[in-house]
Amino acid sequence: MNQKSLIIGICVTLVWFLAITIFCILENFGFEQNNLNSLGDFLAGIFAPVAFFWLILGYVQQGKQLDQNTKALEQ
Predict the structure, then answer these.
(1) pTM for this one?
(2) pLDDT in tens, 8-29
(3) How high is the pLDDT of residue 75?
(4) Domain range for residue 54?
(5) Do 9 and 60 form a contact (C-beta atoms < 8 A)?
(6) Looking at residue 49, what is its pLDDT?
(7) Do 5 and 61 touch, CB atoms closer than 8 A?
(8) CA distance 35 to 53
(9) What distance in Å separates the CA atoms of residue 47 and residue 26, rounded to the nearest whole number?
(10) Which of 3, 20, 48, 69 shows its CA 20 to 30 Å from the CA of 11?
(11) For residues 57 and 23, what is the distance between their CA atoms, to the nearest angstrom?
């Protein structure tokens, strides 16, 4: 993964977690009144978009590398 994609990925991930943290603070979201099932659903809802985002970044990076390898082989 090139440096630009890595920095963009880290920044988007940090902004996502910061937004979730602000939401939890402002809405007074507490884990003590929820059961474990709802806690698991909450955590899955937080981490699934981040994992999907990094999957897309990896896929795009792999496509770029494949294009570079194809150009190198054509020369």
Answers:
(1) 0.76
(2) 999 999 999 999 999 988 888 7
(3) 85
(4) 3-74
(5) no
(6) 95
(7) yes
(8) 28
(9) 20
(10) 69
(11) 26
**Please, where are the H alpha helices in 1-75?**
3-26, 36-74
Write out the two tokens for 18.
């910061």
The rounded distance, in Å, linking the Cα atoms of 4 and 18 is 21
Length of the chain (residues): 75
Distance, in Å, from the CA atom of 57 to the CA atom of 75, rounded to the nearest integer, reads: 28
Q: Tokens 């955590």 belong to which residue? A: 43
Cβ–Cβ contacts within 10 Å for residue 34, how many? 13
The total of structural domains in the chain comes to 1
Positions of the chain with pLDDT lower than 50, given as ranges: none
Closest CA to 2 of 20, 10, 12: 10
Please state, in angstroms and rounded to a whole number, the distance separating the CA atoms of residues 57 and 53.
6
Both tokens assigned to 39: 């806690």
**pLDDT score, position 1:** 64
